Amino acid sequence: MIYEIISTLLKKADPEFAHSLAIKLLKNNFLPTTLFTQKNSNKLQIQVLGKVFTNPIGLAAGFDKNAEVYNSIFKLGFGFVEVGTVTPLAQSGNLKPRVFRLNEDKAIINRLGFPSVGLDKVKKTIENNKPNGILGINIGPNKDTEYKIKDYITCFENFCNLCDYICINISSPNTPNLRDLHAKDKIEELLKNIKLKQRELNNSTKILLKISPDINDTTISELADIVLNENIDGLVLTNTTISRSDLLKSSHKSEVGGLSGLPLEDNSNQIIKKFFKKLQNKIPIIGVGGVHDGPSALAKIKSGASLVQLYTSLVYEGPLVANRINNELGKLLEAEGYLSLKDAIGKDCI
Description:
CATH architecture: Alpha-Beta Barrel
Largest sheet: 8 strands, parallel, barrel
Order of helices and strands: HHEEEHEEEHEHEHEHEEHEHEHH
CATH topology: TIM Barrel
Helix content: 25-40%
CATH superfamily: Aldolase class I
Structural class: alpha/beta
CATH class: Alpha Beta
Number of domains: 1
Shape: globular
Radius of gyration: 19 Å
Strand content: 15-25%
């Protein structure tokens, strides 16, 4: 009853205030862990990125920006957590208001602009709170930096020994010129420098690249070739979109920023399918965008994703969402005759 009251209040409150309150509740272990205890189907276990995931449902970057509550999030049934985006220096992000709920569309538009306490504080937090599950760290450049590649290298150097994977975010629409890094020459320069630093550090942490949904087939083909040539370990597909469907109903639909949630689902799935076909299953894909139930998670997997992430559905569905999706996904795999999650990957691409 208390949880239902709090959930209702959070949905009605200012989005950033509600987010801050949710972080505080998790930080102080307000929610009883017995509420979320669930045994996953064995079919959901999968080995990806050199790790065994108990289930494929992860929390996307953007919720736990400053790595404050990842161990609490693991208790909610998530198979992995990605924190960040973390920038080298602390920055406040863009001016408020900058987060908008599109309730009628089960979507969110944000133009946060990488608000971050900076890598020093995040690094200290993680060093003092060892992850109890599979942790990814999403990294990005400061807004005013002149040479963005240097910022990525600085973050990689500081975090590569503290997590299971590093996700290089070149796809937020809310940092000026960030998406320019999708260009062939720029992304090659970035990835070559990251891999060089990794070799210098004798480090083996997995490196992933998070990509925009607002790209054409030529860019998809170029990026697929580049990540294979540079031995990148995986892709996160996709970030938020700046495109707007005519079907959006909310009065906030024209706000500037990245759109996430249900309206992104089909676009994200199409991007995943195109990359899966180009990559020929040589590196894994984490599918993001519109995951809210078992069928939507399975659609991502059949499109070519080995793992999936969500964020917006956590806002709309509450902290039980990961367990519910895992339960539904396990039943769907059973009903469709799959012996394991791995057997379903890319089946809609055949």
